Each structure stands twice: as structure tokens, then as C-alpha cells.
Amino acid sequence: MGNLVAIVGRPNVGKSTLFNRLTKTRQAIVNEEAGTTRDRQYGKVEWTGQEFSIVDTGGWVVNSDDIFEEEIRKQVMLAIEESDVILFVVDVQNGVTDLDEQVASILRRSKVPVIMVANKTDNNELVYSSAEFYSLGLGDPFCISAVSGSGTGDLLDLILTKFQKKVDEIVDEEIPRFAVVGRPNAGKSSIINAFIGEDRNIVTEIAGTTRDSIYTRYDKFGFDFYLVDTAGIRKKNKVTEDLEFYSVMRSIRAIENADVCILMLDATRGIEGQDLNIFSLIQRNQKGLVVVVNKWDLVEDKSAKVMKEFENAIRERFAPFVDFPIIFASALTKQRIFKVLENAKEVFHNRTTRIPTARLNEEMLPLIEAYPPPSIKGKYIKIKYCTQLPNTRVPSFVYFANLPQYVKEPYKRFLENKMRERWNLTGTPINVYIRQK
Ligand code: GDP
Ligand code: GDP
Questions:
Q1: Ramachandran region of residue 326, left (φ > 0), alpha (ψ -120 to 50) or beta?
Q2: Among all ligands shown, which has an atom nearest to the Cα of 63?
Q3: Helix, strand or coil for residue 154?
Q4: Where are the beta strands (DSSP E) in 144-287?
Q5: Cβ of 94 less than 6 Å from ligand 2
Q6: What are 59-100's pLDDT values in tens digits?
Q7: What separation in Å is there between the alpha carbon of 431 and the centre of ligand 1?
Q8: What are the Cα distances from residue 85, in Å, to 6, 344, 409, 413?
């Protein structure tokens, strides 16, 4: 399972600058992602072949000029609960402040490894100033300059050493892992209860390692599946979950460890920013998607026309990814609960679709011939052959072209749509690559 690093600290110490610096290590890979998650909130870092997720808690402080000590305190506590390593950023040019001391006193009591990062160490003299941070009782300050990048490589090395070896939970790869995600009050707990019944008849509880087990296996209505992060759901605390920060932290964990995400929307509320943020997390992690429009029992006009309008609105907001199931359900009355599981299972299978090369070429090459990529600067672009890559997370296809650099995004989307028309890839992201032949 993935590791999660949280950046904490008072405003203006350079958390956001550090976040940008660290996530740049992977920009080449992530730049294609269309996302609405504010970039400050969540990113992926790749360093010496290892990947981890990182969140900047500062991304949630609405107005960073207003220092809400209480809010920062809460965020630090939640970061402790949810992350594997904490980067506590302080500002050497400013020295120790009261707020630094308050944050440090919370961190000293935590069991999560903390790295105290002395930022804005732009020159060697400032290294001496960093000594005053020893007084915070969190060991050696680690000197960096987020602006220039000095020290950040060593910091990444250090972060990797702090991840505890997690004994991989043994899960059966054949059995789908579902995560129920969505903003507070969308009905996540209710639908989970509907899935597993009041008796909560757990088939197997796998012993977790560093924290409670994140996978719980259920065998219900003829479906065999794992629900991800049910431990977290069980100990859910309404007060804290109302913070967007908290629900995003929770979502990240659940999404990263799932095959298919069941995204709960509230029919009485429509789609809001938080829904899009969670959708974007699912997309960025290339997970399968089933959208549930929950609380359908509360909607008076359930005509086909209203449903269609609802569907269109959702697909419009989630575009360009539009090929996923939308189920109108009620966790309360259990209407279409079965259908949700059925669709989640189908999406799981679609993620593992293998299209034989011969079939792929047979279908796609005549289409490409009829609608070739537009020629650029008088140069004709030819695609002669395509194939699916083996052993990828989601179905991934390579099209070989004479001038791959001239095949643009709209044409890739055209290829994707044509494949989706021909094969059942509903609910799964796919990758289309153009390479040199
Ligand atoms: P945050 O509120 O903790 O996220 O802080 P920001 O990342 O927004 O940075 C606050 C200010 O400190 C900005 O003006 C940054 O340019 C500046 N800053 C960040 N890192 C450094 C650094 O390493 N050296 C110097 N001199 N300034 C920095
Ligand atoms: P969570 O915060 O996403 O886990 O949401 P909950 O499952 O706790 O549900 C929030 C509120 O919405 C509770 O009062 C539920 O009883 C109610 N609720 C959930 N699903 C439905 C539904 O399908 N119909 C109706 N009418 N209420 C629902």
C-alpha cells in the first residue's frame, strides 16, 4: 500500500513552495492529468524509483493571513492520524515562534516519524541559526531551501528511510477491492451498511500491520469483495469528518488502495467542488469508477427526463472521462444497491480487459485509414500498427506512427472513444500512447 507524507507548519514558512518542489520530481508523468484538485492539496512524488503521496495541510487553510490556531492544531492532529511521515516546516529566517512551539508539542506526542525541516536556509550562515530549533525537542533540524531546491534531494532520501516496512497485506488479486468515497453526508456509511447488512457479517479480517486492517472481505448477495478502509469508517467521527481536509485525507488512502471507487453524490445537492476534487483523485490514481446518485428516494420527479438531465450534468462536469456507470440509488430504502455492486464488479473486470492484437488492428486500422490524424505542415501522419501493453494497471494501448509528436490530444481521444464503442471499457480509465515506428 502507498505511503502518505503530510507537510505541516504555520503559514508562510514555505510549505507550499516545498510541496511544489517535491512534486516536480514527477511532473513529466502527471502533466496530462486533468484535475480540479487544487495542486496544493495532493500530489505524487517519485524519487529513486519509489513513489509516495504528499499533502500540504496549508492548502486547506482558507485564508492564510488569518491564523486559526485551532484549525492548524486540528489539521496537525489529523495529519498524525492519517500519514506515515510528517514534514514539520519551520522558517530559519524568522526563528522559533509560539505557533511553532504549539505544533511541536503536538508532534512530540505522536508516534509518526517527524522530520523537522528548517526551510529558507538559503546560505551557510543560516545553518547556524537553525540550531535554535533544537529547543523544539524534535531532534536535528534538516536544513533546506525550498526556493533554490538545495537540500531537497537529501530530504527525499531521508523521507524514504522513514517509511516503515509494511508487511503487505495478503489480498486475493482475483477479488475486487471497492472503496466508497464522497463528501460528508453523501451517504457513505449508509450504503456500506446496506452492502454488508446490519449484522456486519465479516468473512475474514486480515491482520493489519502499522494500523488497523484496511481491507475487509465480504461475501454478500453472491458478490465477493473487499471493502477498503472499513476500519477508518468504523471509527469515523462526524465532527472531524466535516473538515474537507479530513475527508480528502481519508479519500486518498481509500482510493489508492482500491480497484474501483464508488463515488457517492447526494441527489439533493447536485455536484459541488468537493465532489470534483474526489473525482479528480480517482482519475489521478487511474481507478475504476461507479457514480451513485444517492438519496434518490428524496427526489420527487423521478421521470426518465429528469434522470437523463442528471446524467448529462454529471458527465459534463467529469468530461472528458464520460464512460462510467451512473446509478440512481437509495442507501436508505436499499433501492438499486445490488446494481451498484454489480456495476462495480463489472468495472473491475473491465480494468483487466485484454484485446488481442489481431482484433485491435482489424477494428482500428480501417477506422484510422478513413479518419487519419490531420497532416501537419504538409506532412502525412501514418499509423500502421497498434497493440495493448502487457501487465499495466489499466488497459494501455500503443499506436505506432511515423511522426508521433504530431498526433495531438484530440486524436488520441478519438482513438479512445472508438475503442470504448467497440469494447466494454466502461468505468475504467485507459491510456493511449503514440510511439515512433
Ligand atoms: P506556506 O504558507 O507555508 O505554504 O508558505 P509559502 O510556500 O507560500 O511561502 C511563503 C513565502 O516564503 C513565499 O514568499 C515564498 O517565496 C517564501 N519562501 C519559501 N521557501 C523559501 C526559501 O527556501 N527561501 C526563501 N528565502 N524564501 C522562501
Ligand atoms: P456519510 O457522511 O457519507 O457517511 O453519510 P451518512 O451515511 O452518515 O448519511 C448522512 C445522512 O443522510 C444520514 O442522516 C442518513 O440517514 C441520510 N441518508 C443516507 N443515504 C440516504 C438515502 O438514500 N436517502 C435518504 N433519504 N437519506 C439518506
A1: beta
A2: 1
A3: helix
A4: 177-182, 204-205, 215-220, 223-228, 260-266
A5: no
A6: 655 544 555 677 777 778 878 888 899 999 999 999 999 989
A7: 36
A8: 7, 32, 37, 38
**207 vs 298, which has greater pLDDT?**
298
Nearest ligand 1 atom to alpha carbon 19: 7
Average pLDDT over the chain reads 85
Residue nearest to atom 14 of ligand 2 (CA): 185
Separation of alpha carbons 53 and 75, rounded Å: 17
Band of residue 170 on the pLDDT scale cut at 50, 70, 90: low
Is any atom of ligand 2 closer than 6 Å to the C-beta of 71? Answer: no
Helices 337-351, 188-196: crossing angle, 10 deg rounding: 90
Give the number of the ligand closest to the Cα of residue 193.
Answer: 2
Q: What is the pLDDT of residues 186-211, one digit of tens each?
A: 888 888 888 877 544 444 444 333 34
User: Is the separation of the CB atoms in 244 and 185 below 8 Å?
Assistant: no
CA of residue 425 to ligand 2 center, whole Å: 31
Tell me which residue has its CA closest to atom 17 in ligand 1: 14
Q: Residue 189 and residue 184: Cα distance in Å, rounded? A: 10
pLDDT: which is higher, 269 or 196: 269
| CB of 180 sitting under 6 A from ligand 2 | no
For residues 146 and 13, what is the distance between their CA atoms, to the nearest angstrom? 10
